Amino acid sequence: MNYTEKETKMQRDSFVFYRSYYEAIELLPKSQRADAYRAIFEFMFNGNDITDELPNTAKAIFLMAKPTLEASNKKYEAGKKGAEAKKANKEKADDKQPTKQSESNLDSKQQATSQANDKQPTKQNGSNVNVNVNDNVNVNENLEEKKEKKEKKEKKYACDEILEEALNKSD
User: Fold this and answer.
1) Lowest-confidence region among 54-58, 134-138, 151-155
2) CB 77 within 8 A of CB 10
3) Angstrom distance (rounded) from CA 20 to CA 25
4) Backbone angles phi, psi at 124, to 5 degrees
């Protein structure tokens, strides 16, 4: 789901504004710079996509920045959800009081730890013998990420066409 398609629009107090945005907007005629800045700010602070109101060159600049702006919004939302979950988990943990069963589990864990320590390799000829076997396999195929990359590529080509058209009109 696109950021602009959300039913409730997010309001933010800040976002990262990259130098590349500034440099691209500075290449616009002075009369269109404010439009490009306003499009970015309106999108990031209020969730409104106002590309229909923009002249073609300002629209092209905004459309080139839009994928990174959307990614920033996704990270912001994910961070917000993570913080809320962490807060909820902390409140749950604070509400729970230790019971006799959890105390007996703690005693059994302590016993298991001491038994494991008894089975540790001992020193032979004054040197430590440590055996560690770590076997981690991580295979991730995220089809959604592949789809997003493909969509970004398609958007890029659309932005290139709009920019070329706008530059040809301004010549």
Assistant:
1) 134-138
2) yes
3) 8
4) -125, 125
C-alpha of 143 from chain center = 17
> Which residues neighbour 95 within 8 Å (Cβ) at sequence distance 6 or greater?
none
β-bridge mates for residue 57, sequence order: none
**Under 8 Å between Cβ of 11 and 46:** yes
- C-beta of residue 169 within 8 angstroms of C-beta of residue 55: no
Residues 6 or more apart whose CB falls under 8 angstroms from that of 68 comprise: 18
Distance (Å, rounded) from C-alpha 19 to C-alpha 25?
Answer: 10
Give per-residue pLDDT as tens, 106-115: 566 666 565 5
CA pair distance 25, 64, nearest whole angstrom: 11
What would the pLDDT profile of 94-141 be if each residue is shown by its tens digit? 776 555 555 555 566 666 565 555 555 555 566 677 777 777 766 566
Residue 127 is encoded by which pair of tokens?
């040197």
The answer to whether 50 touches 63, Cβ cutoff 8 Å, is no
Question: Mean pLDDT, to the nearest integer, of 71-98?
Answer: 80
How far CA 45 is from CA of 9, 18, 99, in Å, comes to 9, 16, 48
Cα–Cα–Cα angle for 168, 30, 19, rounded to 5 degrees: 90
